[in-house]
Design brief:
about 425 residues; 12-stranded mixed beta sheet; 4-stranded mixed beta sheet; 11 helices; about 30% helix; globular; binds zinc ion
Length: about 425
């Protein structure tokens, strides 16, 4: 078995807990001193960093949510001075404003190291040619994964997104052996390769797939079509980005790295669930400097698994994600919250604040989002040009905030059922493949 960092990856529980306690105390002290938001939250609960004497004392600390990011947009949660922040990334937020995260040099370094640890775990090394087929913008999957590829010593091919035949051509010409992309794109890539009779020309062995939930059936299809092993990668920008948890060759649950994160899986009452039970994944960053999240409620539902794994690693293990605690949806790898849509349309005078989201998958297996909105009574008209203008305006405003292309359908006033619950706002017709 090859490890990137055998000492840490196989560290016994007692030693790891000691390391975690030391790091937790330091994180709590830093946010209390440097972040007014945290100082206020600690004070409200009457807790001081010195009250953390054991790991169980973490339950005394305040929990944080995505709303705390948007409320403190853009830099309010940063725990290091701006002159020490060398990069920012962001991801979509809940009310139109994105969640912004800042990294110190040390953060970027640790993040690359974590990814190298994951890549080594699935057999990727300096002999690999590794294509990163995700967006290289503010999204953490581009530059984040890229740094990890270079750290492990493989050859990075920063392909970005788009033009699938060209992507396949690059894979063939460059002798690509590993790829990072979303699972739905991997499936589309596989289908395109099969259709064009290119599979035999590929040298691909390993897929690192993340940024959206995918089923075991989908994994099987991707693996069979491309003749590779495909591994689940979990991450969130609030904790660096991708690389927080990753599958090992057992492909049976994910290792989540205790030296950098304190893991809680909490039930509805905020109690830690027992092994095998499901709950919400709540994470505390133990080594970050730029942005330290304390008891961050990820919104992701998972199960706590037994820590022993045949691969020999001793980390906490969680199941692949079961779902979301809230109603966030993922469209082409981008997180979309219905509240964002609500926000946008509430500012457009010609439409009501009733809407419905319809999700489908097109013949390229890519997500399509249609948003149905209602015209105000007095906005209804036979003038097609006028309607067209309203429709185009809604499309543009949504694109602006969501960063996902949407189709907009204008409906007559009263067409959308009024309901107290928000679940009916989303009609997800994307089949679990
Ligand atoms: Zn393992």
């Amino acid at each position: 078995m090859t490890y990137w960092d055998a000492h840490i990856e196989t560290m016994n529980r007692k030693e790891m807990n000691e390391l975690q306690l030391k790091r937790l105390q330091k994180s709590a002290k830093t946010v209390y001193q440097n972040v007014p938001f945290y100082r206020r939250r600690f004070d409200e609960l009457g807790v001081k960093p010195e009250d953390i004497k054991t790991l169980a004392d973490i339950s005394k600390l305040p929990q944080t949510t995505k709303y705390d990011f948007t409320d403190n947009y853009p830099y309010g949660l940063f725990a290091a001075p701006m002159e020490d922040i060398i990069r920012i990334h962001s991801s979509s937020g809940t009310s139109g404003k994105p969640k912004v995260v800042g990294y110190t040099k040390n953060d970027i370094d640790i993040w690359a190291d974590l990814l190298a640890r994951n890549f080594t775990m699935v057999g990727i090394n300096k002999h690999d040619i590794f294509q990163n087929s995700v967006n290289y913008g503010l999204f953490t999957g581009g530059l984040g994964i890229h740094n990890g590829i270079e750290r492990v010593g493989a050859t990075a091919v920063p392909a970005g997104t788009g033009n699938t035949l060209r992507q396949l051509e690059m894979m063939i010409d460059f002798g690509v052996t590993a790829i990072h992309c979303t699972p739905s794109y991997a499936l589309y890539l596989a289908e395109t390769a099969v259709e064009n009779d290119l599979v035999d020309k590929l040298k691909l062995k390993t897929g690192c797939l993340g940024a959206e939930a995918w089923s075991d059936n989908m994994r099987k299809s991707i693996e069979e079509m491309l003749n590779i092993k495909a591994y689940d990668s979990y991450g969130l920008s609030e904790m660096f980005g991708p690389g927080i948890a990753f599958e090992c060759p057992e492909q049976n649950g994910m290792h989540i790295w205790d030296d950098h994160f304190f893991v809680e899986v909490l039930d509805k009452n905020g109690e830690q669930v027992s092994e095998g039970e499901k709950g919400e994944l709540v994470l505390t960053s133990l080594t970050k400097e730029g942005l330290i999240s304390i008891r961050y409620r990820t919104g992701d539902i998972t199960r706590l698994l037994e820590p022993e794994c045949s691969c020999g690693r001793c980390s906490t293990r969680i199941s692949r994600l079961i779902g979301r605690a809230d109603d966030m949806i993922t469209v082409r790898g981008i997180n979309v919250y219905p509240t964002q849509i609500q926000d946008v349309i509430s500012k457009i005078p010609e439409v009501t604040n009733q809407f419905q989201i319809i999700l489908t998958r097109n013949n390229k297996r890519l997500d399509e989002m249609t948003v149905q909105v209602e015209l105000q009574k007095d906005a209804f008209t036979d003038d097609l040009l006028k309607l067209d203008r309203i429709q185009k305006n809604v499309v543009a405003q949504l694109m602006n905030v969501l960063n996902v292309r949407t189709t907009v359908e204008l409906l007559e006033f009263g067409s959308i059922e009024r309901t107290g619950g928000k679940s009916k706002r989303i009609i997800d017709k994307r089949e679990a493949i």
